[in-house]
Design brief:
The protein has 190 residues and is mainly α. It is built from eight helices and four strands. One of its GO terms (molecular function) is hydrolase activity.
Length: 190
């Protein structure tokens, strides 16, 4: 299958619309969903990803942190929507969530620094591009596991991603009712 709008897809790692990734605290990719066509909202990509169907099984008693583009679920924590009425506890939760969510931004930054080809993918067939992106993510994980030198890469990436905005996305996403109670409990103990 040929991609009609190659220019937009070629830069998809940079744009971040057609790739969904989960990483751990060491910036290793743990789950990857690549190849969703077009520029669509994060919640739609999530709903169609295998992760959304197996989230509870994969996470158990742990949580994945998401931005406001994702739906709040039992194992997927998202920020409180800021409509000007947040309590100090909710603001504190959003700040801590944002600081921890920076890890995925750093992971993508490291990936793009190590594999500059991601800026100029010359492949045209979607399946090949998907395999290419998955392969560089595997190589990224291997380089972290084997502690290959990065020459101040993390500092560079942290400078580039100094502040990751929490902001609300335009799409209203329905939250899981029981997940609201979980998020409120976590916010209370932070």
């Amino acid at each position: 299958m040929e991609w009609n709008n190659f220019r937009d897809f070629r830069n998809f790692v940079h744009v971040g619309k057609e790739i969904q990734a989960v990483c751990d605290h060491q910036r290793r990719f743990k789950d990857l969903f690549v190849g969703y066509p077009g520029s669509v909202h994060d919640s739609r990509v999530f709903r169609t990803s295998p992760l959304s169907q197996t989230l509870e099984q994969k996470c158990g008693t742990y949580f994945i942190l998401g931005d406001s583009g994702y739906p709040l679920q039992k194992n997927l924590l998202t920020p409180y929507k800021d409509r000007g009425t947040l309590t100090q506890q909710q603001i504190n939760y959003n700040i801590k969530l944002s600081k921890n969510r920076c890890i995925i931004e750093h992971s993508f930054g490291m990936l793009k620094q190590k594999f500059r080809q991601l800026y100029h993918i010359k492949l045209r067939k979607i399946p090949l591009i998907v395999h290419f992106v998955r392969a560089v993510c595997v190589l990224h994980n291997i380089s972290i596991k084997d502690e290959l030198p990065d020459a101040n890469l993390i500092e560079t990436i942290e400078a580039e991603n100094a502040a990751v905005a929490i902001g609300d996305d335009n799409e209203d996403i329905e939250d899981d009712g029981s997940a609201v109670a979980i998020r409120d409990h976590i916010a209370a103990i932070l």
